[in-house]
Amino acid sequence: MSAEDVNFHLGHRERLRQKFLDNKLTDYEQLELLLGFVIPRRDVRPLARGLIAKFGGIYPILTAPIENLIEYKGIGKNTAIFIKLVHQIMLSSYKTCLETGTVFHNEKILSNYILLLLSGKATEELHVLYLDVNRRLLADDLHSSGTINYAVVYPREIVKRALALSAKYVILLHNHPTPNTSFSSDDVQITTELQALLKPLGIEIHDHYVVSGGIVYSARNLFLLK
């Protein structure tokens, strides 16, 4: 790399840092700045753009399995670990917020947590969040992991777990690996069945969320909860 290239490289990264401070970074520039800390001696602009194109956005990159990241040309093991560390830090931070604050007053935090948890998954996962009387998070359980278009639900196991935790509310979360697909008829049916089991016990379904294509769909907002 020539002295001229080095000067441009250093100047470009300084401009990125300033844009970050001014809150003006695009998605690929955020990723570029992040990658620059772990790959300091290389122009990572093509790598950042390529990752965005390959995985479809920041959330899918952060949530991608580490082996998928390593397979991408230009991403070594250390860089993949760095990306996954950022993912885990963000996920832990949002989870702590949900444990200490009420979900009702942290809808944006909940939405971000759900995206970090489920975006980019190649198969369906169903998580159940159990909340106390103040809608604070008691537990996030991976209920089941299935195929590309199906995850098994065991309603009575959810009831049993809710009673063991003295939960007053539950939230269902699952993903659709196929982009831009909202609730299926099966999703609505299982939600209704679970409501019928929980209601006599004084336990409510706060909401059911589906993540698909980087979008979080809410059953409550779509008037699918009775």
Describe this structure in words.
It contains nine helices and five strands. It is an alpha+beta fold.
Question: What are the salient characteristics of this protein?
Answer:
9 helices; 5 strands; 51% helix; 226 residues; alpha+beta
Radius of gyration: 20 Å
Percent in strands: 15-25%
Write the H/E string, N to C. Answer: HHHHHHHEEHEHEE
Number of strands: 5
Structural class: alpha+beta
The biggest beta sheet reads: 5 strands, mixed
Give unreliable regions as ranges: none
Separate helix tally: 9
Distance between the termini: 64 Å
Shape: elongated
Q: What's the mean pLDDT score? A: 89
Strand order in the largest sheet: 2-1-3-4-5
Share of helical residues: 40-55%
Topology summary:
Elements: H1 3-21, H2 27-38, H3 45-55, H4 58-63, H5 66-71, H6 77-100, H7 107-118, E1 125-131, E2 137-145, H8 155-165, E3 169-175, H9 185-198, E4 204-212, E5 215-218
Parallel strand pairs: 3-4
Antiparallel strand pairs: 1-2, 1-3, 4-5
